[in-house]
Amino acid sequence: MEARVPSRRTVRVDPPGGHETLRPALVHDWLTGMRGGEKCLEVLCRAFPDAALHTLIHRKGALSPAIEERAIRTSPLQKVPGIFGQYRNLLPLMPLAARAWDVGDVDVVVSLSHCVAKAVRVPAGVPHVCYCFTPMRYAWQGRDAYLDGWRGRPLRRALAGLMLDRLRDWDHATAAGVTHFVAISQTVRARIKAYYGRDSHVVPPPVDTDFYTPDGMPRGDAFLCVSALVPYKRIDHAVIACTRLGRPLVVIGEGPERPKLEKLAGPNVRFLGWQPDAVLRDHYRRCRALLFPGEEDFGIVPVEALACGAPVIALGRGGVAENVDDSVGRVYSEPSAQGLLDAVNAWEADGRPHDAEEGRRRAEGLAVPLFRARMLAFLEKVAASHRGRVGPHALRQLRPTTSVWSEAL
Fold first, then answer.
1. Among the listed residues 207, 38, 16, the one whose alpha carbon sits nearest the alpha carbon of residue 117
2. What element of type H or E holds 183?
3. Quick one: pLDDT band at residue 134, thresholds 50, 70, 90?
4. Which of 9, 47, 146, 158 has its CA 20 to 30 A from that of 40?
């Protein structure tokens, strides 16, 4: 999948005191572009400029300078020819590749994980804070969407199902190596509890409200979608709904679903691929409304749109429903193209109700300085509480997690 064009903006935040002596290691699943997870990572990279960053693969030049300037250490997957076009197909190899990470002598390990980053091996006595975007999507709530990719190939689909069963066992086992979970939303907190049997602290992701601002200019007629073009994002619902309505739609994003979506689209739908942040902001400021038909873990895009004064019409499930309701646009319950179409019609018939000031207020509650302060305060508290002792989970590291995966092979 192509990545979003990396931002060259510089975010300056006055650092709170106390973290200067903290020596963390940072771990991220993969670094192939600037999406929501990488924006969280960027803040921590600025806070800890000397911290090593461990990842499976790194597409050089695809990240912001704050990330690119770090000491980035990759796994053996980095050497696979053509890896950036096929890394999701190598999902079965990722647990083994993650064993190559060696964090060294640090005070705390911070993994930012939606796949395998939380499986990093941590020295005994060192706390491991997992900032969890979601439990491994492919093994849990995203399992069906992953298997849909093998529709029409029943044998491969069955084998993929067995592989995901093993991945689920492995993912559950690696949760024992995390001393503290931090969830990005109440939605993800509930998943962590359901899948891992662990409680978690909630720190929502950051939104750059200094950059994403309204400009007071009139809104246009085109609806907007901003997303990676992958199945679980359900951009096909927006394309089909707007094609049926004959309403203009701009789609910003790239991914393997694009050819399929272009076949579904009428002449009123335009695909722009990934765009620089300034272009994206302009579309947030001008769109009639942002359409967001997928069930997300959090949903930074809708909050960026709210920061720019845009109405948001979204599926009322997942993390998006924690920030979007009918006061700032419209939420709907039926996850289908018809459900979205009906929501658009109802919103239009009601006079397009939208409180732009309330939307902006909600976005400002998730500003970058607040995220940074919340995360650093939590990390300092964890590090202080673990100095001189071994946590209850830190003793259960490599042996149980690798044995589960070895049986899978």
1. 38
2. strand 180-183
3. very high
4. 146
Please check the confidence at residue 7 and state whether its pLDDT lies above 60.
no
Cα angle, residue 131 at apex, residues 40 and 394 outer, rounded to 5° = 145
Return the half-sphere exposure (C-beta side, CA atoms, 13 A cut-off) of residue 7.
19
Q: Residue 306 corresponds to which tokens in the numbers above? A: 């709210």
Cβ atoms 124, 390 nearer than 8 A: yes
Length of the chain: 409
Structural class in CATH, domain 223-364: alpha beta
The topology under which CATH files domain 24-206+368-408 is: Rossmann fold (3.40.50)
The DSSP symbol for 82 reads T
Do the domains 24-206+368-408 and 223-364 sit in the same CATH topology, yes or no?
A: yes
For the cut 50, the answer to whether the pLDDT of residue 393 exceeds it is no
Write the pLDDT tens digit of every residue in 255-275. 889 999 999 999 999 999 989
Task: Give CA angle at 300 (299, 303), nearest 5°.
Answer: 100
Looking up tokens 């939208």, which residue turns up? Answer: 354
Measured CA to CA, the distance from residue 63 to residue 58 in angstroms comes to 9
Distance CA 301, CA 92 (A): 30
Lowest-confidence pick of 88-97, 264-273, 367-376, 380-389: 380-389
Nearest 10 degrees: Cα torsion 39, 287, 239, 88: -10
Q: Is the pTM higher than 0.85? A: no
Domain locations in the chain as residue ranges: 24-206+368-408, 223-364
Half-sphere exposure of 322 (CA within 13 A, CB side): 20
Residue with tokens 């700032």: 328
